[in-house]
Design brief:
- The chain is of the alpha+beta class.
- Helices cover about 25% and strands about 30% of the residues.
- The protein has a 4-stranded antiparallel beta sheet with strand order 1-3-4-2.
- The chain has one domain.
- The longest helix is centred in the first third of the chain and has 14 residues.
Length: about 100
């Protein structure tokens, strides 16, 4: 095996391991059916990013769950650009609206 073949095999192995971190945070609020997703651009395997996902704007009534992940369609551009461009999907599951207080006569 030549050194170029070995380097290509090592690079392919690293790209195929799925070393991206997916995370989910639960806030303890009851979840509604409303889910908001946003694809964010990152560079150098996700090490360089200035993306902000505004949870207050996405879910004004509160957030029950939020996180981010790399799907197969996010992973493909990363593979073909050798990690220079690595998109990620950020998401939020909105909380159930708070019940309104009823006035007693």
């Amino acid at each position: 095996m030549t050194s170029k073949s070995l380097a290509a095999a090592v690079l392919a192995s690293l790209m195929l391991t799925g070393c991206a971190m997916n995370y989910t945070f639960l806030t303890g609020l009851s979840a509604s059916t409303q889910r908001v997703e946003e694809t964010q651009s990152q560079a150098l395997f996700g090490w360089m990013s200035d993306n902000v996902f505004d949870l207050d704007k996405a879910c004004p009534q509160g957030v029950a769950e939020f996180g981010s992940y790399i799907s197969f369609t996010n992973w493909l551009p990363s593979f073909f650009t050798l990690g220079l461009y690595t998109p990620r999907t950020a998401y939020a599951v909105c909380a159930q609206p708070a019940p309104t207080a009823q006035a007693t006569p």
